[in-house]
Design a protein that fits this description.
4 helices, 129 residues
Length: 129
């Protein structure tokens, strides 16, 4: 029981400082606009574009019927080129399917992003009917 209280306090403090999806999207948009950083998102999409399209086509065939709402994906790309902290909003069945596919990929090594371990990226996606 004595260990539970400090652990609970740590978890509450961690949750209080967790970034929202909106805050993470803002960071990724700032990276896309910064002259010294904006080349990385383009490189990531060049490398992953075909896989992203295949993943989205696969997610469009979900059973029961795929949810067609637009969604936003945010992630951090680690210095090793792996996706971490992948999140989607809203968390529809298609969004979660795409997030799994995105998380499984390997990406170009990103430049350092000030104050972060990973490089923030974002995408807004939707399945067309």
């Amino acid at each position: 029981m004595k260990r539970t209280a400090p652990l609970l306090l740590f978890l509450l403090i961690s949750l209080a400082h967790a970034e929202t999806v909106e805050e993470r999207v803002k960071l990724a948009r700032e990276a896309e606009a910064a002259p010294e950083l904006k080349q990385y998102p383009a490189a990531l999409f060049r490398k992953g574009g075909r896989r992203f399209a295949r993943t989205m086509r696969s997610c469009a065939r979900l059973k029961p019927a795929p949810e067609h709402k637009a969604f936003v994906l945010v992630a951090d790309i680690t210095p090793e080129g792996k996706a971490s902290a992948v999140a989607v909003e809203p968390a529809t069945n298609v969004a979660e399917c795409f997030a799994e596919g995105f998380a499984a990929g390997t990406y170009p090594k990103p430049p350092a992003y000030p104050g972060r371990e990973g490089f923030p990226v974002t995408m807004k996606l939707r399945i067309e009917r």
